[in-house]
């Protein structure tokens, strides 16, 4: 659900992108298409994030054309579904070309049917056309067609498009640094996620199904204004917590197990991505607590490593140091910490990285490396910190008491001028805080809202 920002925000993003291009350049960017789940039933529409970032326009099938001419004059043009009252009765209202100009601040707009006639003419003086190479929507074929049309009609000037280039590196570098408006959206996403995870902790009871806890999370998102999740909610109890992207959420949760919830709302297009792991019955066992504390210490060490100028890999290294030290202390690994890290001996228990960028996409765009080196963190970047330990239920190399425990703790962190701001700070993660919140809920609600 998109509540567009003021048109000036998108216009300045388009201008910032065009400012980086040479004169006689064009950018073509397609909107997402509607997808079908099964006969006549559509998946919920989600706009392409690049398109959303530059327009705020939330309709399917549109096409954006940005132009910079030889005099460095710029123009933003949108091709959109035409107004069609008979069709709109079925599928909803459309902005149409007038709305694209009036509500979204485009200089000009046309209907999709006008593409074939307008685009070759508009591209006639462009030397270079940028488009997103990773889009699988036939953009390259369409562009070739328009260029051929220009040539066969003898309308191309000497400068007619000679080069195709990928817009993604420039655009994704912009998306990587969040403006203060974007930071506000992501701060709000963080707060909404915090409330949802707190509610799940308060409502969890042995015997409930994982999908019922998922429903609590989604209900809380919706009550706070977010209809959609940023990704499929993961509620994995017991050994299901060892499946990194477990989304079946179908089992009953057992007394004595932990439950791992990885769930984030989509707030005005921006993703929250937060994981908490807690005991189904509200009390950690000694073994669960030992392993949990190791992950929590690793997470806090990783967050402490976030500061402008540190490299992206630094939090991961900090987390690994603590995790591997803990695994040795608990008897799950044997050897020297440095050697175990070097040999990746921890991989059976920790097989993913500690961070990814976060923004309009949950695994957001932006390079992680520059010239082969981990890149430096800059104010405005947002990344997750999400170490975990997963002891497979069939791992016979470890004592039986550890098997089937899966733990991940994930927060969203904004890099600031001074250091960092944890956007999801208020979701309890200390053992004592989780136990206190759950005990209080039990005392207040007796059997809980589901009984
Ligand atoms: N929820 C997906 C992830 O944490 O990366
Ligand atoms: Mn996550
Ligand atoms: Mn994540």
Please describe what this structure looks like.
- The structure is a single chain.
- By secondary structure, this protein is an alpha+beta fold.
- The chain has 13 helices and 20 strands.
- The chain has a six-stranded mixed β-sheet, sandwiched between helices. Strands 9-10-13 form a three-stranded antiparallel β-sheet. Strands 16-19-20 form a three-stranded antiparallel β-sheet.
- A hairpin with a 4-residue loop joins strand 19 and strand 20.
- Helix 8 packs across helix 9 and helix 10 packs antiparallel against helix 11.
- It is elongated.
- The chain starts with 6 loop residues before the first helix and ends in a 6-residue tail after the last helix.
- The site of one manganese (II) ion has 4 residues, from loops.
Topology at a glance:
Layout: H1 7-19, E1 25-30, E2 36-38, E3 41-42, H2 49-55, E4 63-68, E5 74-80, H3 85-91, H4 96-104, E6 108-111, H5 115-123, E7 128-131, H6 139-152, E8 163-166, H7 168-176, H8 180-203, H9 210-223, E9 234-237, E10 258-263, E11 266-267, E12 270-271, E13 274-279, H10 286-304, H11 313-329, H12 337-342, E14 369-370, E15 373-374, E16 382-385, E17 388-391, E18 405-408, E19 411-415, E20 420-422, H13 431-445
The chain binds glycine and manganese (II) ion (2 copies).
């Amino acid at each position: 659900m998109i509540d567009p920002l003021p048109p000036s925000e998108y216009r300045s993003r388009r201008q910032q992108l065009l400012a980086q291009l040479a004169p006689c350049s064009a950018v073509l960017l397609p909107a997402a298409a509607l997808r079908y789940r099964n006969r006549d039933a559509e998946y919920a529409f989600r706009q392409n994030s690049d398109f959303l970032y530059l327009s705020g326009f939330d309709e399917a099938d549109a096409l954006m054309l940005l132009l910079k001419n030889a005099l460095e004059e710029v123009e933003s043009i949108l091709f959109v579904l035409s107004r069609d009252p008979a069709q709109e009765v079925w599928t909803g209202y459309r902005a149409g070309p007038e709305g694209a100009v009036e509500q979204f601040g485009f200089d000009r707009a046309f209907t999709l049917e006008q593409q074939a006639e307008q685009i070759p003419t508009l591209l006639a003086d462009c030397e270079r056309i940028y488009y997103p190479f990773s889009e699988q929507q036939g953009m390259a074929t369409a562009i070739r067609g328009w260029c051929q049309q220009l040539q066969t009609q003898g309308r191309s000037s000497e400068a007619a498009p000679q080069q195709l280039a990928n817009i993604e590196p420039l655009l994704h570098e912009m998306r990587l640094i969040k403006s203060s408006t974007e930071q506000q959206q992501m701060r709000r996403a963080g707060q909404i996620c915090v409330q949802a995870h707190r509610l799940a902790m308060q409502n969890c009871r042995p015997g409930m199904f994982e999908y019922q806890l998922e429903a609590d999370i989604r209900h809380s998102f919706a009550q706070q204004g977010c209809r959609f999740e940023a990704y499929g909610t993961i509620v994995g109890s017991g050994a299901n917590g060892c499946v990194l992207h477990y989304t079946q959420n179908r089992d009953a949760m057992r007394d004595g197990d932990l439950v791992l919830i990885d769930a984030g709302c989509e707030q005005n297009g921006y993703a929250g991505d937060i994981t908490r792991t807690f005991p189904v019955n509200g009390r950690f066992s000694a073994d669960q607590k030992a392993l949990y504390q190791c992950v929590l210490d690793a997470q806090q060490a990783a967050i402490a490593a976030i500061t402008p100028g540190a490299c992206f890999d630094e939090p991961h290294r900090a987390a690994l140091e603590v995790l591997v030290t803990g695994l040795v202390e608990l008897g799950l690994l044997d050897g020297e910490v440095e050697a175990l890290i070097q040999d990746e001996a921890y991989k059976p228990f920790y097989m993913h990285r500690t961070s990814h960028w976060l923004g309009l996409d949950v695994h957001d765009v932006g390079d992680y490396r520059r010239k082969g080196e981990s890149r430096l963190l800059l104010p405005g970047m947002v990344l997750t910190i999400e170490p975990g330990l997963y002891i497979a239920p069939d791992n016979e190399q470890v004592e039986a008491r550890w098997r089937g425990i899966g733990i991940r703790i994930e927060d969203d962190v904004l890099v600031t001028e001074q250091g960092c701001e944890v956007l999801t700070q208020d979701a309890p993660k200390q053992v004592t805080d989780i136990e206190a919140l759950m005990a209080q809920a039990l005392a207040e609600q007796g059997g809980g809202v589901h009984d």
